């Protein structure tokens, strides 16, 4: 069994990339997988960065409590990796034990919420 699972987000719009990453990530967790999950987003067709990379990283950082770790892969700017803790869309506990609502990023209309 592979220790890394990945999803290729090339040719996606930002909205599609966030939706598909969230579905893939949550499916990995439902299947019991807890290893490295990579999003292959590329670094933009002009080589200076595309729209998916910064949007995905902002999305992940806004939900940092869902991950053991977020890795901005050194030497490969076209890949972002996470080590999962809980599903995206869950309301994970904060350090004080209270739950915190995860609100969607502006313009995403709830992408990532699983109901």
- Average of per-residue pLDDT values: 80
Instruction: Kindly name the structural category.
Output: alpha+beta
Broad CATH class: Alpha Beta
What radius of gyration results from the CA coordinates?
A: 14 Å
Percent of sequence in beta strands = 15-25%
Instruction: Give the helix level as a range of percent.
Output: 10-25%
Write structural notes for this entry.
With 115 residues, this protein is α+β, with helices and mostly antiparallel strands. It has one domain (4-84): Ribosomal Protein S8, Chain: A, domain 1 (2-Layer Sandwich), CATH 3.30.1370. 24% of the residues lie in helices and 19% in strands. The protein has two helices and four strands. A four-stranded mixed beta sheet has the order 1-2-4-3, with helices on one face. A hairpin with a 6-residue loop joins β3 and β4 (79-84). The protein is globular.
Summarize the structure.
This protein is α+β, with helices and mostly antiparallel strands and 115 residues long.
Label this structure with key terms.
alpha+beta, disordered C terminus, four-stranded mixed β-sheet, 19% strand, 115 residues, single chain, Ribosomal Protein S8, Chain: A, domain 1
């Amino acid at each position: 069994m592979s220790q890394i699972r990945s999803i290729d987000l090339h040719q996606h719009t930002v909205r599609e990339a966030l939706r598909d990453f969230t579905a893939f990530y949550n499916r990995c967790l439902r299947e019991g997988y807890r290893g490295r999950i990579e999003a292959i987003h590329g670094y933009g067709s002009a080589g200076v960065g595309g729209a998916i990379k910064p949007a995905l990283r902002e999305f992940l950082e806004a939900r940092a409590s869902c991950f053991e770790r977020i890795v901005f892969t050194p030497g490969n700017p076209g890949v972002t990796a996470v080590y999962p803790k809980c599903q995206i869309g869950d309301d994970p506990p904060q350090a004080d034990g209270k739950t915190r609502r995860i609100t969607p990023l502006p313009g995403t209309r709830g992408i990532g919420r699983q109901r």
